[in-house]
Amino acid sequence: MKIIDTEAVIREYYPQGSPTYEILVRHGEQVAAKALAIAGQPGFGTVDKDFLFEAALLHDIGIFMTDTPVLGCHGSHPYICHGILGRELLENRGLPRHGLVCERHVGVGLSVRDIREQQLPLPVRDMRPQTLEEEIICYADKFFSKNGHNGHKPRTIEEIVTSLGRFGEDPLRRFHAWKHRFEGENESPALPGQGN
To answer: Does a structural domain hold residue 167?
Structure first.
């Protein structure tokens, strides 16, 4: 597989040294580090680590086209669209596999049911991770905020669960399944309505 110059791709859309560039690069590096740590564990030998690294760095490439002032983005689309915008952008660059990571990392992935029930301004299609690399990046992404509210510290499991809990039990189940698979931990905070 050809190695992609991710920095060159990012610099085409984000002025180097700008606040948004720094946010995007820092976040991508955090997600890439966690994703590679997961992929380096025993049992994950089939993961394409070069692709994992590149896709983690590029998964949020579409944010500049959204109207998200807190990230320095003043585009015309709602933030929820950054995944499909990134997919289109990377597909147009001949990077369709990287583009799918963009589209499928939002939340814990979005189902057709999610899109319809929440009336999201997205194409009605399954946008859930389908490959191991997509799942790892989607999982790793949940630990890191771009808005700086946590500083540079990873989010706790409890913070992630609280955030995902607003969207029902399906996203929580998916996240907990990934947590067990990628971190081998059985102890998870209870789903809403369960436990003590």
So the answer is: no
